[in-house]
Amino acid sequence: MLKRLRVLFVAVVVLAALLAAAAPALAVQRPTRVMIVVMDQMQPEYAKQYKMKNVLWLQNKGVNFPTAWVGDMASETVVSHNVMVSGLFPKHMGWSDEAFRDVDNILGYGENAIVTSGDLGTSAYVKLIENMDYPKLGDYLKLKFPGKIVANVGQKGYQVESMAASSSDFWVRMGSKKKTADLADPFSPSSVPWTGTYRGASGQVPSYIASDPRFLVSVGNASDTYGTDTTAPALLYPEDGRYVVDSYEGHQSGDNWVADAATMIMEKEDWSGLWVTFSSIDKIGHMWGGGAIDTEATYGWDPASIFRQIHMPWVAKNADDQLGKLIAKLKELGQFNDTLIVVTADHGATYGAAPDGFKGVNAYDAGNKYNWYAGAWHAGSSTVSTSTGSPALKPLMDTGNVDFSYQSTAIETWLKDRNMTKKKEAAAVMTDLPGVIATYIKNGDRYKLFSSSPTMTAAERAWWALTGQELVDTMCFAGSADLVGLLADKTSYGVFGDHGGAQMDVQRIPMAWYMPGMKHSVNNAKMRLVDIMPTILKTMGIKATEPMDGMAYSLRLPK
Ligand SMILES: [Zn+2]
Predict the structure, then answer these.
(1) Is this structure's pTM higher than 0.90?
(2) Is the confidence at residue 246, as pLDDT, over 90?
(3) Distance from the alpha carbon of residue 419 to the mean position of ligand 1, in angstroms
(4) Ligand 1 center to residue 143 CA distance, Å?
């Protein structure tokens, strides 16, 4: 029996036993709904730096974990979102990085095919989850609250669909780009105030969102880039219209689109779980390098300026305003008092600091074209995509033994010939790549340290000694990279602002828990993403019947 189904069976038995026994004394008020709000790529400092008043309010009224961290690798969107709702380390999820080797040909591209995780859709994630056989938070919620739905909303396909896969009823994200001239019923070209191209809601979309023209947004037109396609370093990964709210009245994009879809679901559905991801902080961070650079002093809030929308002060404040909309809707619907709210991020951020911290090609769309991926891979299709990678990676590619390599703020490489001698040869080359501070070789179900750099700063060494081995091992499974190269602080191979590795700046995240009446506290434990699901289950009084890698924290609930 699949463990997802076994969860249902065991819980029914437990419930029957509880009912048969004397009624337990339930002194505390437990939440009957949980809302996870992910601020993609938010660093903990942003809350104060950008005056994110709703995040600060939740931190100051609920339980705040100021030293929370991702706690696993890879610190990537498509990995972290499923960690949060599985309670599992990436090595137990079916995919643990931006790419994996499909050892057992689960997806049908051939035995040992390299597949990029971010190019997959729900049905593929479901296959990977069923192969690893684990229940998700949504499965437990649906058992505890029969008839109530679980839903996910966000801008990006891989973010929403990986998190939703196998346990959500609705998942809503922006779909592929289409021509406005081809708009079909219930819409017509006259339903949008621009011509050219657009994106609409996609996924498993409720009819009231699918039929609402507000969710069509202008994407891919010349005016949707706000100059980011011609300005360095943003041009490495420029805005296309999905993350800036934009000026088309009634057709708001960005985090407003997400909040509007989420609040509609709250209104129309009887829900127990809602996962909402705001992605604009991530996009702006990738383009400009995040909070250390993109400051209030330079690009402060100006509601009248559309160009402020491509910088962090505007976007962070706006993301916070959207969180405020969700809270206001909970209050309006009378749901606030029984909802547990979790605000966190899927990873932090760093950037390629001058003079030479950025190791990729510095050109238009170079993140996608050259920098992130090198080698050959299946992008969710039987067709093989290829790239030679950026010049910085050339010594590694020149070994002739690279199947695929992914580089962001770490380098992860899958080899063709994987005998130990060949792995060591390639690891020696990786050791000498610019910015590499530690190189690991996969050996069974662990990574073994091959080399570490004497040039690490004291801060880098302290953090690496504390976390390096633990982090790389959380992604080690049959399909994971054969070699891992951890990179120095403020070093990136992908785009100017990036994440994915083990650096302190990409690992540290905000983490606030709130329910009305909860006793406020500041908890200096190093809570991880993998601890979210067990903590939610414990807080809601749901017994976990399958093992998780995370641990449950105790939150003081109202009596
Ligand atoms: Zn992310």
Answers:
(1) yes
(2) no
(3) 34
(4) 29
